[in-house]
Amino acid sequence: MITTDIYIAIIIGIILSLLFTELTGVLPAGLVVPGYLSLIMKQPQTLLLIFLISLVTYLIVTHGIARITILYGKRKFTAMITIAIIIKYVLSLIIPDAYIGLIGLAAMGAVIPGLIANTIQRQGFIPTITSTGLLTILTYVATLSIGFIG
């Protein structure tokens, strides 16, 4: 996959996410998330790990850290991103075989579970996961249909 494919997938994901949010009022875990996830559609283990890390991050921050400190706005967002990155790192140490699936979480991808967790906290699990899943699939299909990624 060349860099142009990555940019195109993310741009298509952003446009579809914006249109979806404007039409429904439901956020797909951040505008960049569906585009990024569409790039790893052929790695279901990585997609599963991303959503599991997101859920665990949400639970730790919301039902753990938020009980001992005041979290709102940027503090909450920072906690979500940081905890997601820590979980990704710990998983790669504890289960080396799982690291193969976590490679897809390199660079920007390390932030994706935190973005998903943050959106779960704001609008709920079902709306976040379904909208993100739907837009990821739509972005993937759109990029395939115009000849990118595959």
UniProtKB/TrEMBL annotation:
<protein>
    <submittedName>
        <fullName>Poly-gamma-glutamate biosynthesis protein PgsC/CapC</fullName>
    </submittedName>
</protein>
<dbReference type="Pfam" id="PF14102">
    <property type="entry name" value="Caps_synth_CapC"/>
</dbReference>
<keyword id="KW-0472">Membrane</keyword>
<feature type="transmembrane region" description="Helical">
    <location>
        <begin position="47"/>
        <end position="65"/>
    </location>
</feature>
<feature type="transmembrane region" description="Helical">
    <location>
        <begin position="132"/>
        <end position="149"/>
    </location>
</feature>
<keyword id="KW-0812">Transmembrane</keyword>
<dbReference type="InterPro" id="IPR008338">
    <property type="entry name" value="Capsule_biosynth_CapC"/>
</dbReference>
<dbReference type="GO" id="GO:0045227">
    <property type="term" value="P:capsule polysaccharide biosynthetic process"/>
</dbReference>
<feature type="transmembrane region" description="Helical">
    <location>
        <begin position="7"/>
        <end position="27"/>
    </location>
</feature>
<dbReference type="GO" id="GO:0016020">
    <property type="term" value="C:membrane"/>
</dbReference>
<keyword id="KW-1133">Transmembrane helix</keyword>
<feature type="transmembrane region" description="Helical">
    <location>
        <begin position="101"/>
        <end position="120"/>
    </location>
</feature>
